User: Fold LLM class flavin-dependent oxidoreductase from Hamadaea flava.
Amino acid sequence: MTIRRGVGLTPMETRREVILDAAVLAEELGYETFAVPEGWGLDSTPLVTEIALRTNRIHLTSAVLSIWGRTPATLAMTAATLHQVSGGRYALGLGASTKALAEGFHDTPFEHPAAKLREVVTQVRTLLSGEPAALRRAPQAHSLRLNQTAAPEVPLWIGALGPQTTRVAAELGDGWIPALAARDGLASWAAALARVREHHDPGLARLTVASGPIAVAAEDPGLARDIAAACAAWYLTAMGDVYARSVAEQGYAEQVKEIIAANPRPNPRRAMVPPSAQPVLDQLAVYGSSEQVRGDIKRWDDAVDIVSILLPPGLPWPIMEATIRAAAPR
Assistant:
């Protein structure tokens, strides 16, 4: 079996040089993909450009750009440009994001997110294919095409968790990037989306699934658990209800309640997962010594196409490097 591995970061990671060093190391170690997120900190697109200029082989993904923060035309221009800069190594990741980010940062009402996602993905693909923009809000205007070489081959990867947004991923995406997905349910979840895809259009290529655990390798296994638990608990308690609802619906409702109760004032450094909720942490993370991470990450290989580890924000470089090395495909 070919082992396919990727590295991903959280939007809370804003140390630019650390991100660049991690990408270069990932390429050296044979990772297939490196995913650069975007939230309310770094603009990921110039960062992807910088990584592309420092690397030669690794594929780069925006994972993910919010559909509320840029117009479809801007997203298409960005994707086509990064496709050129990277020599064809770029995948455009799109997602409906969260109500907190859409409204609290982009000042945009979070209304009908699945419909908005479908509309944006469709418009971006139209423009990348060299077709004129599909005008919905200014239909009287003269419709323009992308004024550069068409790039229909740019993959569109969809970050989605809810039933309506995952349907968009299945029907319109080239890849699916589910965050905080329980390991044991991923294969059946992906199979269900494959059936949706087949029913929608039997001629579509197989949907690539890229997901993986929060990963931390440290000499002190207890410290590794604390860091992984803090990252998981922060997502479940402080990022709106999207992740908590998703993990609960994956069969861990009681554990999610316990984590929320244990973190009345969420803190990204001090968030915790109580022992009673350990089953959900073991579904969402791999942690411990390098040997433990190297062994445990293999349990994900049969669940998805690309096992993409998620590095918690603020990791000291020695721990980040050890984690990337421990989970490497070779």
The two ends are 13 Å apart (CA to CA). The first strand starts at residue 5 and ends at 9. Residues 242-262 form the longest helix (21 residues). The chain has one domain: 5-216+293-326.
